[in-house]
Amino acid sequence: MFEPNTLRYLDEALVILDQGFQGLPEFTPATQPEPLRAVLREIAQRMQDNFPYPHPLYAGQMLKPPHPVARLAYMLALYINPNNHALDGGRASSAMEKEAVANIAHMFGYTTHLGHLCTSGTIANLEALWVARQARAQGLVLASEQAHYTHARMCEVLQLPFKSVAVDAAGCMDMNALEDALKHESAGTVVATLGTTALGAVDPLHEIMQLRERYGFRVHVDAAYGGYFTLADNLDGRTHAAFEAMARADSIVVDPHKHGLQPYGCGCVLLRNPSEGRFYKHESPYTYFTSAELHLGEISLECSRPGAAAVALWATQQLLPMVPGGEFARGLEASRRTALALHRHLANSARYLAGPAPELDIVVWTMAAPGRQAASRRAQAVFDGAAQRQLHLALLRVPNQLAAAWWPRLARDAETVTALRSCLMKPEHAEWLPRIIERLDNTAAREPLSA
Ligand SMILES: *Cc1c(COP(=O)(O)O)cnc(C)c1O
Predict the structure, then answer these.
(1) Where in the chain is the domain with CATH 3.40.640.10?
(2) DSSP letter assigned to residue 411
């Protein structure tokens, strides 16, 4: 599962890296190898206490293994350990970050941009909302009820007024509810989620853009999860139209550490208008003293950042260019196809109650039962039973309104319904789907229908 034989390419590359520093006097760090080896072996034991995230039978939460080239590039860069806060801390990796970020901006159709990598989608969204506040000081921040909770929380941090907007039965922002809010209150920013965390639902950004013409507000796109699906050729028409509208958004967040095959610690924030870099202006007596040009530390809320993350992303983009029709795009298409196939299976079986057809690659369902309580109990039992069969799924608590729309015949003896949820993020899930379904069906068959 771990492809250990690729490690020899790291050895080979380290020799080349070392050649760049040959002029220096000989220096060998005094590391004792044996104690180090003992600690590593202990870690290998302890890390066995994990779900098998890289394996295709792990089909639960949003966990996609980094590409081997990302892992190796990250490790290789660690021998320099660059800090992309300032050019002093990492010239090569800063240049690679700018190239990698420009590629992402290009993928979304931005013709101008300012952007950088950061720790996570959370920090990237904080930064985008902070820039929004600096750019137009007043007005509500509106995001859907299914938006990531970080938006409400970061509005508290930034002391911005926040309000959530109702969703439709598909979990997308309801345009009537949005227009209602816009009529009655002054909105500063509308956050559109392209790929919600729970369902992979895509807010109709193209329709939000039409409302922007009438009401005037800033548009921030949280595509932390779903952004890369802009490359996929098998989306529904409305979903595709939402992705096409991204080029007109004021800011975009995408997480290369979710669908972009990167190790954790890799989020990305993009601003369409480079002049918004002015909001970051500050004086610092201790950094920047050797470089005259604007660099990454001057357009970021965070200071020290791993240059290794930029190197890993750059490496992955070299191997798997983010272009329609390319291998990377085909991987996303496979995920979406697999999700549709699983959804079809669930919808055609009397054992299950399928949720809405997936817009991206997340599938949600519960178990057939007379009422919500029994369905929830059975979903929990299937979750546990599947794990015993080495199939790892996730659970989701479906709120009343969505549960009523999806499963109207379930007796409403509880406020919410526990559902099963599967993020089919690995291209290999396509090939493994028959085995996933077999394990799921076998588990479900053992749960009495009348539980
Ligand atoms: C995951 C996610 C976030 C938060 O990103 P982190 O990288 O986990 O901090 C924000 N928004 C959406 C839509 C997400 O899916």
Answers:
(1) 78-319
(2) B
Give the contacts of 185 (CB within 8 A, at least 6 positions apart). 140, 163
User: What's the pLDDT score for residue 346?
Assistant: 98
| Ligand 1 mutation target, pool 64, 148, 202, most atoms within 8 A of CB | 148
How confident is the model at residue 285, as a pLDDT? 58
Give the distance (Å) from ligand 1 centre to CA of residue 191: 13
pLDDT in tens, 290-323: 445 557 878 899 999 999 999 999 999 999 999 9
* Strand ranges, E, within 231-389: 251-254, 267-271, 352-354, 362-367
Measured in whole angstroms, the distance separating CA 305 from the mean position of its chain's CA atoms is 19
Which pLDDT score, from 0 to 100, does residue 138 have? Answer: 78
Read off the tokens for 322: 């983010």
CATH no., domain 327-445: 3.90.1150.170
* Nearest alpha carbon, ligand 1 atom 2: 224
Closest among 419, 265, 260, 266 to 355, alpha carbons compared = 419
- Look at domain 78-319 and name its CATH class: alpha beta
Q: What global pTM score does this model have?
A: 0.96
Instruction: Identify the bridge partners of residue 191 per DSSP, sorted by sequence position.
Output: 143, 220
Stretch 153-159: mean pLDDT, rounded?
97
